């Protein structure tokens, strides 16, 4: 009983104090324990000599005093550079803009509107964006349907009469580049 309680006290005493750890942990390329070397010239840790008053003199001191350490630093320095380069490349790869998407062919929208009485007009949108010369198309429709055809928007023709069903067949016949599946009949 007494022994057990003394054990308890011991284990309590041995309980490690939990300390938040914010450093990334041991590095495979660093030999432990860390042994900070201070510069005999500028008195800063050697890693900080380059920020000191005279890095050139620090380097000379290091060459004179600790040539092995200098070689080691240079070796690990170049290693770090390689690692950095690799990281940058990876990041660049991820961030690379994807190839520009080929612009998709636009739909051709056919619609009809009732005008006075039971007269209709047919509205064709999207010809120009399917590489159709809108002015040639206007003339072609006027002749083909023997009716008025006018440009009613940037990429829109208005044909007198209801010619929607004719256009569905006619457009891909007349213009090879028009994909029949992209013709949308909204009438
Ligand atoms: Zn120094």
UniProtKB/TrEMBL annotation:
Compositional bias annotation for Acidic residues: 1-10
UniProt superkingdom: Eukaryota
Annotated InterPro entries: DENR/SUI1_TIF (IPR050318), DENR_C (IPR046447), DENR_N (IPR048517), SUI1 (IPR001950), SUI1_dom_sf (IPR036877)
SUI1 domain segment(s): 108-175
CDD domains per record: DENR_C (cd11607)
Gene Ontology biological process terms from the UniProt entry: formation of translation preinitiation complex; translation reinitiation
Region ranges (Disordered): 1-31, 72-105
Transmembrane segments: none
GO molecular function (one): translation initiation factor activity
UniProt similarity note: Belongs to the DENR family.
PANTHER family in the record: DENSITY-REGULATED PROTEIN, DENSITY-REGULATED PROTEIN HOMOLOG
The protein, known as: SUI1 domain-containing protein
Organism from which the protein derives: Rotaria magnacalcarata
């Amino acid at each position: 009983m007494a022994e057990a309680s003394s054990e308890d006290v011991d284990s309590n005493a041995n309980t490690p104090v939990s300390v938040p750890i914010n450093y990334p942990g041991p590095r495979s390329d660093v030999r432990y324990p860390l042994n900070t070397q201070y510069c005999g010239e500028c008195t800063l840790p050697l890693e900080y000599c380059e920020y000191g008053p005279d890095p050139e003199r620090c380097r000379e001191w290091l060459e004179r005093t600790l040539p092995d350490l200098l070689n080691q630093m240079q070796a690990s320095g170049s290693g770090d550079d390689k690692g950095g380069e690799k990281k940058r490349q990876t990041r660049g790869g991820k961030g690379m803009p994807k190839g520009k998407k080929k612009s998709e062919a636009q739909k051709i929208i056919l619609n009809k509107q009732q005008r006075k009485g039971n007269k209709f007009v047919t509205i064709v949108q999207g010809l120009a964006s399917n590489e159709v010369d809108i002015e040639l198309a206007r003339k072609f429709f006027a002749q083909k349907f023997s009716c008025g055809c006018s440009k009613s928007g940037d990429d829109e023709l208005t044909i007198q009469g209801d010619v929607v069903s004719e256009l569905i067949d006619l457009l891909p016949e007349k213009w090879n580049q028009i994909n029949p599946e992209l013709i949308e009949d909204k009438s």
